[in-house]
Amino acid sequence: MGIGIAIGITLIVGTLMTPIIQGTFGELIASTGGKLTILGVLVAVLGVAIVSYAGLLKEKATGVQAEEFNLKKGLLLAVMCGIFSAGMSFAMSAAVPMHEASAALGVSSLYVALPSYVIIMGGGALINLGYCFIRLIYRQDISFKSDISVPKALLISNILFAILGGGMWYFQFFFYAWGHANIPSQYGFMSWMLHMSFYVLCGGIVGLALKEWKGTGRKPVRILCLGCLVIILAANIVGLGMAA
After folding, report:
1. Which domain holds residue 209?
2. Residues 136 and 143 sit within 8 Å (Cβ to Cβ)
3. What is the radius of gyration, based on Cα positions, of the chain?
4. How many CA atoms lie within 13 A of 28 on its CB side?
5. Which of these, 94, 139, 135, 134, lies nearest to 117 by C-alpha position?
6. CB 191 within 8 Å of CB 183
7. In a 3-state reduction of DSSP, which class is residue 139?
8. pLDDT tens track for 152-168
């Protein structure tokens, strides 16, 4: 449920705050296409909520319980994660001059966003590394030495999975840039809505394919499928808005 709240918030904040900050939100809601795209955002949030509810039913059906449950802390963290995650969307919007400079040098529209990733993801890497070092300094029960003192096979496995995770994280935005290049510039901010909602859609589909929902009963699966269909509907509404 917390993940659903976080994704819902980052979807709304990361999508709609961009035109608000740029001062184009008024123009957006004044046009038919703009109204449709905003409707698509709201429908996408509804789809995320439905899928999240299905996940809650799945946890109840399988008897999964959190080791520590604190509603206030959980909601606070979910809201914070949602807001901070939207920073990626703001960074991409702020990097438009870099995209234009790349295009002026003859770079294909599919790849103009890639140079900006050096700054955006590099900044994120520095923050994460800094936080890790701070934890190492102030937490006496953890150490880098103990982390690398595990059996060699496990260490290699951890390194490979870390590389795989980093590669997958990068390539999601590599292909994000491809999709963004095919969206009308006035609706560029909608890339984030499509990206975040398809997170949930693909997660649901992969979960079904891997039989993670087996044994949960028909109701959770039906609600999950309904949520996925609502997300697909949202994407089509946004597409109609862009074409209007």
Report:
1. 1-243
2. yes
3. 20
4. 24
5. 94
6. yes
7. coil
8. 899 899 999 999 999 99
